[in-house]
C-alpha cells in the first residue's frame, strides 16, 4: 500500500483524486488538505506521496515543503517556469534521499499520447500550430499542456534542422497567438468546454490534425494514479507523464 496525501483536496480535481485514491486497492488516502488547512497534517500523516492540485501561487512552495518532509510529489498544478523547475531539481539533488517529483502539464492519457505523436510528426511538416480549448474558469493561457506540446515540437524541429513555420503576416500580429519557442499557440476559453487540444501540421497539399478531447475530469485519474505508483521509484525531477510511460 502506498500512503497518499492530496493537496487542494476540495477543488474539482482534488475531489476526483481523493475518490480515485480511495477506490484503488493498492493506495491509501491518509490526508486531504486545502487552502487554510495546517500543512503539518501532511507530514504527520505518514504519506509517502502527495498529489498537488492547488494553484500556481503556492505549488512550488508546497513541493519544497514536501521534499523537506521526505515525501514524493505528483504535481498537476500549472504555472511552472524553467527557473522554478530548476529550483526543485536542485533541492532534490541537495536533499539526497532519492525522492521523486513528477510535474505533469496533463494527466490525460490521450493528451500525453497526442503530445508524443505531435513531437514525432513535427519534423516532417513545414508548418505547425497548436490550438488549446478550455473552460473559461481556467486562470492561465496558454495552458501548461499547450506550452509543453509546443516545447516538444520546437525541440524536435530544432534537432532535425527544420526551419521555422512560414508566416508572411505584417499586420495584426496580436491575432497570431503566443509564440512559444517559434510555435504559435492559440487559446480558446468557452463555456461548455473542459480540456481539448489540436495540433495542426501542414505541407503543400496535405494536412495532419492531431486532436484530443477530455470531457470529464475523471479521465485524468488513470494518469494521476500511474504517477503516484511510479514516482516512488524515480528519483529526481520528471517533467511530463510521458516519461513514465513506455512510448518508445
From TrEMBL:
HAMAP family: DapB (MF_00102). Belongs to the DapB family. NAD(+) binds at residues 8-13, 34, 76-78, 104-107. InterPro entries: DapB_C, DapB_N, DapB_N_CS, DHDPR_bac, NAD(P)-bd_dom_sf. Keywords: Amino-acid biosynthesis, Cytoplasm, Diaminopimelate biosynthesis, Lysine biosynthesis, NAD, NADP, Oxidoreductase. Residues 111-244 form the Dihydrodipicolinate reductase C-terminal domain. Residues 2-107 form the Dihydrodipicolinate reductase N-terminal domain. It comes from Populibacterium corticicola. The active site is at 134 (proton donor/acceptor), 138 (proton donor). This is 4-hydroxy-tetrahydrodipicolinate reductase. Homotetramer. It catalyses: (S)-2,3,4,5-tetrahydrodipicolinate + NADP(+) + H2O = (2S,4S)-4-hydroxy-2,3,4,5-tetrahydrodipicolinate + NADPH + H(+); (S)-2,3,4,5-tetrahydrodipicolinate + NAD(+) + H2O = (2S,4S)-4-hydroxy-2,3,4,5-tetrahydrodipicolinate + NADH + H(+).
Amino acid at each position: 500500500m502506498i500512503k497518499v496525501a492530496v493537496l487542494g483536496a476540495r477543488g474539482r480535481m482534488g475531489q476526483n483524486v481523493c475518490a480515485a485514491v480511495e477506490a484503488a486497492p493498492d493506495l491509501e488516502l491518509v490526508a486531504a488538505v486545502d487552502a487554510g488547512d495546517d500543512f503539518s497534517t501532511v507530514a504527520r500523516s505518514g504519506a509517502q506521496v502527495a498529489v498537488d492540485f492547488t494553484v500556481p501561487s503556492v505549488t512550488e512552495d508546497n513541493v519544497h515543503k514536501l521534499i523537506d518532509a521526505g515525501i514524493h510529489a505528483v504535481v498537476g498544478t500549472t504555472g511552472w517556469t524553467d527557473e522554478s523547475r530548476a529550483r526543485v531539481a536542485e533541492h532534490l539533488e541537495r536533499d539526497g534521499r532519492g525522492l521523486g517529483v513528477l510535474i505533469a502539464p496533463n494527466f490525460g492519457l490521450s493528451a500525453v499520447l497526442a503530445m508524443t505523436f505531435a513531437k514525432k510528426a513535427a519534423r516532417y511538416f513545414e508548418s505547425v500550430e497548436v490550438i488549446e480549448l478550455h473552460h473559461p474558469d481556467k486562470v492561465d493561457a496558454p495552458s501548461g499542456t499547450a506550452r509543453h506540446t509546443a516545447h516538444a515540437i520546437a525541440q524536435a524541429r530544432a534537432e532535425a534542422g527544420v526551419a521555422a513555420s512560414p508566416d508572411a503576416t505584417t499586420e495584426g500580429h496580436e491575432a497570431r497567438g503566443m509564440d512559444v519557442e517559434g510555435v504559435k499557440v492559440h487559446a480558446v476559453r468557452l463555456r461548455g468546454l473542459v480540456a481539448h487540444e489540436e495540433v495542426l501540421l501542414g505541407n503543400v497539399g496535405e494536412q495532419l490534425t492531431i486532436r484530443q478531447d477530455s470531457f470529464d475530469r475523471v479521465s485524468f485519474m488513470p494518469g494521476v494514479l500511474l504517477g503516484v505508483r511510479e514516482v516512488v521509484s524515480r528519483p529526481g525531477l520528471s517533467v511530463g507523464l510521458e516519461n513514465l510511460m513506455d512510448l518508445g
